[in-house]
Amino acid sequence: MWKKNTIFDYSKKSLIAEHFQEGKLTKRKILPRPEGAVVTSEILSLILRGYNFESKELCDFYVFSSDAKLTKLQALKINIETVRVPAGEFECYKIEITLDLGLANYLSRHLFPKTYLWFTVKKPHFWVKYKGMESGINSPHVVMEIADYKRMN
Fold it and tell me: Cα-Cα-Cα-Cα dihedral of 98, 31, 26, 7, to 10°?
């Protein structure tokens, strides 16, 4: 059995990716933690629920993977749409996620597949839909949608 860990060591300002095989550490890579927000892809949709959906400014952040890859991304609210998914129909903010390549951003927006997330306009802005790459540049393009939703009172 294998396992992967991502560790945020705030005291040493570092990011650590570990791989285990049969309970033994087989690979460990340490990267310096960049300035700004850093998240893992597994919690990206949770973190973006706190995005300032009224802002017209880009939101810059990094995604740190269990393979020790650090990717700089930008999020921007594109518009508000009505989205139909198996759980129902929702008014949603549509967020576009793009690679931040600095001076080459114009190219990245036109060369790489688009990634979108939809969050409800109604608070607490839960995630409704994802459309984009499964896990990276060469991964399959996928669509994920919320299948069921029960409001907790």
Answer: -80
Q: Which of 12-16, 66-70, 90-94, 127-131 has the lowest mean pLDDT?
A: 66-70
Q: What is the pLDDT of residues 44-65, one digit of tens each?
A: 888 888 888 888 888 899 988 8
Enter the tokens of residue 96. 């576009």
Within a 13 Å sphere around the CA of 95, how many CA atoms are in the beta-carbon half? 31
Instruction: Quote the strand ranges of 33-153, DSSP E.
Output: 38-39, 59-64, 70-85, 88-99, 115-120, 127-133, 141-145
Short-list 119, 101, 150, 100, CA closest to 45: 119
